[in-house]
Amino acid sequence: MLRAKKKQEMEQEYSEDSMIENGTSDSDSSEDLNEENSDDGFSDTEDPSPELPKTKRKQEETSKSNKKPKLEPKFKQPTAEEINELRETENNFHSNLFRLQIQEMLKEIKIKPKMSNQIEEWVEKFQDFVMNLKDQKSKHDEEKMTWLENSKVKLPIILECRLKPLKFQFLKPKNKPVIVGSAANNTQLGSKLTVDILVEIPEECFRKDEYLNLVYEKKRALYLTYLTDQLLKTKDEGLKSHLKFSYHHNHPYRPVLEAVPFEEFGKKVSFRVLVVPEESSFKLNRFVPWTSNIRGSTFGEKAEEESTHLATPTYNSNFLFDLTTKSSNTLITEIIGENQNFQEGLLLLKIWLRQRNLDSGYFGFSSHLMAMFIVYLYRKKRLHLSMSSYQVARNVWNHLAVSEWNKEGKGISMCEETDLPNQPTMEQFHSYFNVVFVDHSGYLNLCANLPVEQYLRIRSEAEQAVHLLNAKGVNSFQELFLKKTPKHIQFDHLLRFSQPHVVNRVIINHSKREHNHDSAKHWLPRFYNILLPILRRGLGERVKSIGIVETEMKPWTVNSPALKPEKSLQIGLTLNPDIAFDILDKGPQANEESSKEFRDFWGSKASLRRFQDGSITEACVWSSATDSLSTKRLICQKIVEHLLDHHLQVKSTEIFYSAGQIDKVFKLNTLYVREVTDLTEDAESCTLAVIQNADDLGKQLRQLTDLPLDISGIQGTSSIFRYCNPETILPHSKKIEGVFHGYSVHDIVIQLGASGKWPSTLSALRALKAAFYIQIAEKLRDQFKLQSKTSLDGVYVLKKGYVFRVQIFHPKEIVLLKQTVNEKGITQYKDTPVSLELEKKLSLLPKVTSALHGVYQQYSSFGPTVMIAKRWIKSQLIDNDLWSDECTELMIANQFLKMGALPPTHQPQTGFLRFLDMLANTDWNAEMIVVNFNNEISEKEISKLEQKFAKERDTFPALFITTSYDNGNTSYWTLKEKPSHLILKRLCFLAKSALEMLSKVFEDPKQTIPTDDLFKPNTEGYNALIHLNPSLVQRCLSTEFEEPKKQEGSFVRKPEKPNLPIAGYSPITRALQDLRESFSEFAIFFYDSYGGKYISVIWKPDLFEVKDFQVSSANLTTVVKDNRVKVKKETILEDFRIMLSGICTNIEEL
Amino acid sequence: MPEIEGYKLMQLKVTPKASNCNTVYAREHFIRVVDPVKPKGRTLFLLNIPPYVSEGNLQKVFSKCGKVENVFFAEKAGRDDVWTTPDIFTLERSPYKYKVAFVVFSDSKSVQSALKLKSIDLFDESGNTLVKSGADRYLEEFMSKFIPEGILQDKIDDFMRIYDLTEKKEREAGKNQEDDDGWVTVGSQGRNSGFQQTESVINKLETKIAKSKKDKELKNFYTFQIRENKMKKIVDLRNKFEEDKKKIEIMKQTRRFKPF
Q1: Which single residue of A126, A211, A583, A865 has CA 20 to 30 Å from A475?
Q2: Phi, psi of A689 (to 5 degrees)
């Protein structure tokens, strides 16, 4: 009976479609769907090949069905295509969302058909132009080349050597120029496209021995110049372009021609003409690694030195690169050009490299290399044609992450033949190169220019990418492909050589002969090869990786002479936190032979030391054991500066080392304190003493006898217990005339044992709490002789110069605050602002405090990063009432805890820059912050919350932060109006402009970090300033940036301590609260609570308009005429004066 | 005398020489609903009272027009919830805002004479202001939390005695006793106590009933149910897909897919 009825209903519901009748197709597809497929495509590198044809079909169908708009009702019978697509997504992609994001991103960078037509047209014209060129009739001596003298084009090469005079004749290329590189296989990147066109120099242009002594470079440049000259003279309007030369791969011997069409599409496209010899011009085996193709005489060396020819492996490789350009491009196009999934996979990988700045420059991991690696993996059957773009990228990362191309026997080769004439073996490659990836020809090491350090960095990035993909619940897509990581947030320390004369001096004095030859005197590898061994040896395990940031050389117009390479280089260090802060480098025992070598390397820093285990060894000591952590964080800087001075005679003033410049914002201001010890140097080192005393107090509280209830939990809640307070707290507090005086009060929350006897009204409960306070205060006095005072809001205890306030937390208090009775007489519990605040303060904050303390133990730079960030936010006049301190703390904790594109930093300054970057580049409307301590929130819960967040965005505050201790979607850390949309927007804007200012500093060789400018508020845009009575201003005893104004007269900074205020009494904070409460409809107030000397005021818009009299908005109005009223500014200012009597000295209108 | 829509205008002077004073709008309090606290004819209604003016201030100023019974503040004119002074243990502060005031006189004549005032003078004969604000106010407020322990203990004891008494009365009332008409008030005490009338308890009971009903059903028994389940899975998948698409749509609006 029941069954029949149900079936009827069902049929009614689904009457439009045939699903129920058509039983077979239904069960088929459903089974398909439910089937657990082992081929997940994630971790397996080898997919079972029988799957091949099936999946291929699917993919074709997918691409079709994607375009179809999906508007069918949800209950329609699924088509095979749809099931396939859904299933494919499940199997071949990370998730639906990931797949859709990939599609969207690829769509963004896709070239429009109109554009590709225009490109094609241009290239065709260029091909015609080249093929219609005429050969020069005869060879010309270098001195007698009249065409060159008459041409406007200047030769785009500077060779730092003497060449024998050569003869040059232009012969037109035999083959049509072809598109190579990314444009050949549809993998161009970026909003500005570059199309590479390859022109082959016919072999007849070269004599058989011209591979020697840089003649080839010169001839190639001449050929390019001739071509450019002709292009300038061409009559074809469509070809007219802005012509510029630039250096390919940042290598000054490899000029290329850049043509930017005059036409509209030139704004988006530029063409790059590469000139290479035909592969048959020279025998490839002339360029095996051990041969010397540059003789000493080229550099003016004397004959006796010349007798030993030095091998030039790198030079040879670059030569080979030119010779094999065409064949390798054919190879890539054959495999990647034909398969859309490979193309998209390569695009993903290229974006990934680009966002990490790893793909450009002389030392870069070029996209050509990446394409060749994909070809290699395909040939090794690690990738196959049916794989999705996601799988391609994932597999490449997997293989890259486990590769060891720098180890003997682990390098890879694409060449299948083994008996080519004079073919180098893999062992031979390894003995000449650090990183080995041999191409299809068998002679060229594609990684010849790639330093080991750079290779290792890429490898660890690949590892991180795989980790990110595996971590579910992280939006890995954003982190992998869309997060930009500019150098100043990428590295912990950044070392910059920006003075060319310093670089020159180092090269001239210290360059080795073999490097001169190998690099053909290119300054960059020479300099790098001098610098790196010293840094590597000196820093050793202290650094995880040493990155290179090259200065990209700009293109120049063809009419001006070749650009001299700009000699500046930056080295980025990523620290290894376990060792980087060690104060000691231990060397060999004194009597060992290697001790001399150790002394030579370390110079004056090396000294003999006797250790506790009785050994006497050589050692370098960089800092004393009692030094503050912020000093120890800069040990690497000390080492680098010492070694540069010792080995290369570079003084620390000649370089710029960016690491600890901003740290001064939490350093103790010595103006206020006579003696500075190691323990009071900065806020971080002051924190420890406070925490120790709080722990002592905690112990004493537990020992109190005869309390009616036991104390079951004790936890500090002030930010100092999380190492997040930038104020330097010194044991200054004392009792004066019965009242505690001191700069700050630290909160401690205690919980009492369970009891059923607590009263059930709020006042009674609080009255009982007060009774407890009296008891605790009395007992502390009796048992431990501690100074203590009872207040209605806690017990104030003075202990060793610190004032603590002990408060009792009882959960019932929150319940009582939430309690309301609705009209049915049912008791309800609803969050109110007051209950939320109390719950946060007394219940959550203790837990979060201990968790954040844990974060600090794990990543010691967390605390100081928060200190800098807090001071920065306050210095922009945004105080705790507008943007809560905990909000900053949790945001930065999240930065350290979450998995992302960047591993946690170990230098607070970098942490701060990352915080600014996060503020500036996050869309807070679409993203929330989940601080998942100990991964206590499950993925499911997070995704549920994310869904709710996306769906009901309006019910959440402007910025939403949740932690593992919160109750689901209740927002404790941010409220609707704290921060308000306005403040959030303003802070993001300020972060953006601060970052812009800073990134200029990192680009411009002459500047250093303008800490003072960063921490000074912009006073523009405010309507009035309320100057405060300086004796009431609470200062944080750290570095002050804001200069006191002279004309106020009342306050001139004196080098003495400000008067000790009453502990816990902060009239300015209270005044701000009152101002905000009273004038919430009229004005907004801004204040730097770390010692700001004025409150800034902005009137709300339309405040002073004349309006009709209304009972509901009569506040502050004055009658003008005819029943019209207006708010008078003078009245408001007068009320400010009344409300702030004794607090403000003067109100200044702006 | 200046007037606007029936309101008399008064200058609120904090000191004898004050300039740029606030204008207080005053009239006799009049609404249709009778409120025993604000008796008709005897209550003066004042608009635009600055935060720093206290009940005491107004009491003193208007006592020259007649005996003032009471002064109340409220945030807005229409609302009937007047501010009450919180007792010392709740640690709450009264709001510090621009507000309206009700001054209740014991005599209706006083209202009229009050309406004749040109200014509200918040200063004494020697010209010193009556208003307590700024640093003095904050210091007093801060120090008032530190009550000497002996006095505090006495206050707590008094407070708790009263609390215990009221508590006891309520408990008595809560016992299940039959009244004269034979009705029993079911309280939370005693043998036949009812369950607590809180939202969470009621919700729990309701879900429990619903669940026990559901548990009795057979779910994977009939063919149509199995079919339905399969269908549901597909629908779920589609829903998820649609949701993801929506998410992307939102992300697209902020142009988040431009890598460079």
Answers
A1: A865
A2: -60, -40
What is the bridge-based pairing of β-strands A412-413 and A269-277?
Answer: unpaired
In a domain, A298, yes or no: no
Name the A residues in 898-927 with CB < 8 Å from any B CB: 923, 925-926
CA distance A43 to A395: 8
Residues A507 and A650 in one domain: yes
Chain A residues closer than 8 Å to B256 by CB:
478, 482, 923, 926
Q: What sign has the CA pseudo-torsion A937, A938, A941, A945?
A: positive
pLDDT for the residue numbered A42: 39
- For the segment A816-851, what is each residue's pLDDT rounded down to a tens digit? 888 877 777 777 788 888 888 888 888 889 999 999
Alpha carbons B58 and A973: distance in angstroms, whole number = 40
Indicate whether A1072 and A959 sit together in one domain: no
pTM of the model: 0.86
The answer to whether the Cβ–Cβ distance between A826 and B198 falls below 8 Å is yes
- Residue in B25, B89, B230 closest to A766 by CB: B89
- Is A105 in Cβ contact with B257 (below 8 Å)? yes
Q: How distant is the Cα of A813 from the closest Cα of chain B, in angstroms?
A: 11
CB contact under 8 A, A790 and B197: no
Q: Are the beta carbons of A713 and A750 closer than 8 angstroms? A: yes
Domain-embedded: residue A546: yes
Q: For chains A and B, count residue pairs whose Cβ atoms are closer than 8 Å.
A: 242
Number of domains in chain A: 7
Whether residue A998 sits in one domain with residue A868: yes
The answer to whether residues A1029 and A1101 belong to one domain is yes
CA distance A36 to A1090: 60
pLDDT category at A61 given cuts 50, 70, 90 is very low
CATH at A451: 1.10.1410.10
Is the CB of residue A111 less than 8 Å away from at least one CB of chain B? no
> Chain A window 7-36: which residues touch B at a Cβ cutoff of 8 Å?
7, 10, 19-20, 26-27, 29-30, 33-34
Residue type, A850: S
* A571 shares a domain with A467: no
Do B142 and A107 count as a contact with CB atoms less than 8 A apart?
no
Can you give the residue range of the structural domain that contains A219?
A: 110-282
Q: Assess whether A277 and A343 both reside in one domain.
A: no
Does residue A406 fall inside a structural domain? yes
Closest CB to B5: pick one of A86, A793, A1123.
A1123
The CATH number for A182's domain is: 3.30.460
State ipTM: 0.83
Evaluate whether residue A610 is within a structural domain: no
CB count, 10 Å around CB of B191?
A: 5
CA distance A890 to A896: 10
Closest chain A residue to B51, measured at CA:
A1078
Q: Identify from A21, A1111, A1132, A1133 which residue to disrupt to test chain B contact, counting B C-beta atoms within 10 A and taking the largest count.
A: A1111
Q: What number is the average pLDDT over the span A352-359?
A: 86
User: Do residues A839 and A848 lie in contact, with contact meaning Cβ atoms separated by under 8 Å?
Assistant: no
Domain shared by A875 and A979, yes or no: yes
Residues A87 and A179 in one domain: no
- Say what the pLDDT of residue A63 is: 42
What are the CA-CA distances from residue A721 to residues A127, A415, A693 (Å)? 71, 62, 11
Partner B, chain A 765-784, Cβ-Cβ below 8 Å:
766-768, 770-771, 774, 777-778
Contact A249, A362 (CB under 8 A): yes
Q: From A485, A513, A534, give the residue that closes a domain.
A: A485
Evaluate whether A111 touches A57 at the Cβ level (below 8 Å): no
Specify the CATH number for the domain of residue A827.
3.30.460.10
CB contacts of A810 in chain B (<8 Å) are none
Tokens of A297: 């005489």
